[in-house]
């Protein structure tokens, strides 16, 4: 999605009501950010928006990119810099070493990069859904596997074998239970990845 360099566009300050709505949307989509939300989006912060290619909007606090959204209808997606600040706040999958260079070229993430020995999908027998009120009862185990199944259309952070920090973030085009069952096909398309135009965009 952001394979090419992006020219910065003017930032527009957002009304308080819009900021409150975005804050709630962020918490609904990523409940594990709840303990950190006042650090990410202080209530009296001056959040600004910036137009990006392909009808995307980036939300920036001072010179810190936080998240982006396409068409104001799609899921709100974290910028990788936010993911690196709060790595435990987002559902994750892990690719094997062989898939890293392809993901960092903007290629579609395919199932074999996750089902191999170096890949990590949610634990076997993981719950398909969390009960209402149990949204905080999820996370990654010592083996790098998420504790519940992740669903088609859900935002996901992509970790990489042998690396400490996330390398990409995108939306699942196939649920993790289906990836386990089929072992082939696309899993994440149009990811935001390390070194892409969004990562390199200057905000000063």
UniProtKB/TrEMBL annotation:
PROSITE patterns: PUA. Its main location: cytoplasm. It comes from the Eukaryota. It is found in: Cytoplasm. It holds the Pfam family Pre-PUA. SUPFAM superfamilies: PUA domain-like. Residues 2-87 form the Pre-PUA domain. Keywords: Cytoplasm. One of its GO terms (molecular function) is RNA binding. InterPro entries: MCT-1/Tma20, Pre-PUA, PUA-like_sf, Uncharacterised_CHP00451. The keyword Transcription does not apply. GO terms for biological process: formation of translation preinitiation complex. One of its GO terms (cellular component) is cytoplasm. Involved in translation. Belongs to the TMA20 family. This is Translation machinery-associated protein 20.
């Amino acid at each position: 999605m952001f394979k090419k360099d992006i020219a910065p566009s003017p930032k527009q300050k957002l009304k308080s009501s819009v900021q409150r709505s975005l804050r709630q949307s962020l918490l609904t989509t990523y409940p594990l950010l709840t303990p950190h939300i006042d650090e990410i989006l202080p209530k009296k912060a001056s959040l600004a928006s910036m137009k990006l290619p392909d009808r995307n909007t980036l939300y920036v606090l001072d010179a810190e990119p936080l998240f982006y959204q396409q068409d104001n209808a799609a899921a709100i997606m974290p910028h990788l810099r936010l993911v690196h600040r709060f790595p435990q706040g987002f559902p994750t999958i892990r690719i094997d070493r062989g898939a890293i260079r392809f993901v960092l070229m903007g290629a579609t993430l395919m199932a074999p990069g996750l089902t191999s020995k170096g890949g990590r999908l949610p634990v076997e027998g993981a719950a398909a859904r969390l009960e209402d009120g149990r949204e905080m009862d999820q996370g990654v185990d010592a083996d790098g596997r998420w504790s519940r199944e992740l669903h088609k259309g859900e935002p996901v952070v992509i970790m990489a074998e042998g690396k400490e920090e996330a390398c990409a973030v995108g939306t699942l085009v196939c649920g993790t239970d289906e990836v386990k069952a089929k072992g082939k096909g696309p899993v994440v398309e149009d990811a935001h990845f390390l070194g892409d135009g969004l990562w390199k965009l200057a905000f000063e």
